[in-house]
Design brief:
The chain has 17 helices and 21 strands. It is of the alpha/beta class. It folds into 5 domains: 31 residues, no CATH class; 164 residues, Heat Shock Protein 90 (2-Layer Sandwich); 94 residues, Rossmann fold, CATH 3.40.50; 122 residues, Response regulator (Rossmann fold); 85 residues, HPT domain (Four Helix Bundle (Hemerythrin (Met), subunit A), Up-down Bundle), CATH 1.20.120.
């Protein structure tokens, strides 16, 4: 029996029959549980506080994800479309530089979001066919500039037996590899960083093994056991090597999810070697991969380089591409065949001389081969580019124009209804879908989309989930009442799992997270509509970029194609906002500031966008007093001047 005394003491009372001096009696036991009860109350309060803090953190991360991804879609979508246009070698290198210089920012953002997802058990895998070799070469390209800046030898040795296509989550594997390479470069001041990729078949499965080895400062043995714990830093006192301490924890979690192994071998002062082994079944074909170029049959190639391991690896891979390749020996006699092409792998400075046809693969080279001072120059990390350069040096004409579009028979012929309230995102999504061969009908909100929709008129519906008048959830529910079968795909800037679950719960077939690439659109349309596999997809650059903070009221730069749309849309939004301000309609004003902020962020007018965001937050649940009224009036005038100057 539990009993609380008037002075709030908590007692547990038990009684049992007994005999005392030969008489019947009751033996009572009083246990004072006051201290235990207080401890339980404190524990419950702490648990409630922790749950509340965790919910606040999750909400913050979801909001941050939305705020980052919405403007990124405008930037990345436009850049991807730019990648589908004819570009010369210099322009292509500029596009590649944007990708490399922004990868660190995007990796940091991903790590922060993924730590929260891992804590909430929300990390998920999205397997699909991908090329592990190209994934590895992409990673090296991303960090080539950082390695060159430190004067490091940076290269990859790839086993020719690695399958051309495997099934796995390419984005998560890329995230692991990027973290390992980034750490290796961070902690290595001299020597080399080498990435090795090999394949092994065991128990009927194909295991791929990536190893990242460096000649850096190494890791003390007492620190190695804690490396994969969140926020742990083996060298916390070294400013130049400061980081979040999140990367390896995420790598370990993802590796475990993929039923793989992540190991480290290191000794202080002697460098480190991290290896990740993953079971990845071979894929029959990779629909997103273009055919690899091949060399003329039995083309004689000599491979020369200061690192024999690297030269031998390239030699074996060239043999797989049809070349009669061998590693050059300095003490070998002069080559008898004048048609032999010399491939020099230059990881440091200088250009070796050669009297015959020569290709120099170096860190200064680009994605496209160029003739420089009598030889062909190309980047050192892309075998396809090296093959094209060797073919050119051997006298085979180099392609001068690339057909970036899908052949008409293999492009989608879908009729797509798109519901999206942001006019700039409307334009980008429309052009992306048209690149895939779709016919697009646009609506600015769910109610307009519902009025345009009719059974058998469309093959698929793409809808933003957060729109005025009628949102995407309501639109999906309304369509499902009339048609149970049409594919509906939700589009959102919220990467958290709850958003995806809500999309499925209201009847959507899938969810896409902004920014979407052409490959993402192709994959989801193909899956949702069960179309089958086209032969190829236009190979565009997937560019992740951040932004430099522009000064307040810096000139807004908009492409000629987007100029009229931007000016007209912003003009209408500013007028609506001013009318809401005059009428002191806080809700309408807040909604219009949100739209203006999104458009400003897309064109990288970040100071003005942040001003809108701050005033939008202040309108939340507050009275539109005179001070706030004046601040909004001033900001709208600034935005109007900036738009007028476009």
């Amino acid at each position: 029996l539990a009993y609380t005394t008037p002075d709030n003491r908590h007692l547990l009372i038990t009684a049992t029959p007994a005999r005392y001096r030969g008489e019947p009696a009751v033996l009572c036991l009083f246990i004072d549980l006051s201290s235990q009860h207080e401890a339980e109350q404190v524990l419950q309060q702490a648990r409630r506080a922790a749950d509340q803090a965790n919910r606040a953190k999750s909400q913050f991360l979801a909001t941050m994800s939305h705020e980052i991804r919405t403007p990124l879609y405008g930037v990345l979508g436009t850049l991807e479309l730019l990648g589908l246009t004819p570009l010369d070698a210099r322009q292509q290198d500029y596009l590649d530089t944007i990708q490399r210089s922004s990868s660190t920012l995007m990796q940091l953002i991903s790590d922060i979001l993924d730590v929260s997802k891992a804590e909430a058990d929300q990390l998920s895998l999205e397997p699909g066919a991908f090329d592990p070799v190209r994934l590895t070469e992409d990673a090296l390209d991303s960090y080539a500039a950082a390695a060159a800046h430190k004067g490091l030898q940076f290269y990859a040795c790839i086993d020719p037996d690695v399958p051309a296509a495997v099934n796995g989550d390419a984005a998560r594997i890329r995230q692991i590899l990027n973290n390992l390479i980034s750490n290796a470069l961070k902690f290595t001041d001299s020597g080399r960083v080498v990435v090795r990729l090999g394949a092994q078949h065991s128990d009927g499965r194909c295991w791929l093994r990536w190893q990242v080895a460096d000649t850096g400062i190494g890791i003390a043995s007492e620190h190695q056991a804690h490396l994969f714990e969140p926020f742990f830093q083996a060298n916390p006192g070294t400013d130049a090597m400061r980081g979040t301490g999140l990367g390896l924890a995420i790598c370990a979690h993802l590796t475990t999810m993929m039923e793989g192994h992540l190991r480290v071998v290191s000794e202080s002062g002697l460098g480190s070697s991290f290896s990740v082994e993953l079971p990845l079944p071979e894929a029959a074909t990779d629909p997103l991969q273009a055919a690899s170029p091949r060399l003329p049959a039995a083309l004689p190639v000599q491979v020369r380089g200061s690192v024999r391991e690297f030269a031998q690896s390239i030699c074996e891979r060239l043999q797989q591409r049809g070349a009669q390749a061998s590693v050059h020996r300095d003490d070998a006699p002069e080559l008898a065949d004048p048609g032999t092409v010399m491939l020099d792998l230059v990881l440091d400075e200088g250009t070796p001389t050669w009297s015959g046809p020569q290709v120099v693969a170096c860190r200064e080279g680009g994605m496209q081969p160029q003739q420089v001072q009598g030889h062909w120059q190309v980047g050192v990390h892309r075998l396809d580019a090296i093959v094209l350069a060797l073919a050119a040096a051997a006298g085979r004409a180099l392609p001068t124009e690339v057909n970036w579009r899908l052949p008409a028979p293999h492009r989608f012929g879908l009729q797509v209804l798109v519901a999206e309230d942001n006019p700039i995102n409307q334009t980008i999504l429309k052009e992306q879908l048209e690149e895939l061969g779709c016919r697009v009908v646009l609506a600015s909100h769910g109610q307009e989309a519902l009025s345009l929709w009719s059974p058998d008129a469309f093959d698929v519906v793409l809808t933003d989930v957060n729109m005025p008048i009628m949102n995407g959830y309501e639109l999906a529910g309304a369509i499902r009442q009339q048609d149970a079968h049409i594919p509906i795909i939700g589009v959102t800037a919220n990467a958290m799992r709850e958003e995806g679950e809500r999309c499925i719960a209201v009847g959507m077939n899938a969810r896409m997270v902004k920014p979407m690439t052409l490959q993402t659109l192709w994959t989801e349309l193909n899956r949702a509509c069960d179309i089958g596999t086209p032969d190829a997809l236009p190979e565009a650059k997937t560019v992740a970029m951040g932004h430099d903070h522009a000064p307040a009221d810096a000139p807004i730069v908009v492409s000629a194609r987007m100029r009229d749309l931007f000016i007209n849309t912003m003009g209408a939004d500013i007028t609506t906002a001013q009318q809401a301000l005059t009428g002191r309609d806080s809700d309408a004003l807040k909604a219009r500031l949100h739209c203006i902020r999104g458009a400003l962020a897309v064109v990288q007018a970040h100071a003005l966008a942040e001003g809108c965001g701050e005033l939008e937050r202040r309108l939340e649940g507050h009275v539109l007093d005179e001070s706030l009224h004046n601040q909004i009036e001033v900001l709208l005038a600034r935005i109007k001047r900036a738009v007028a100057a476009v």
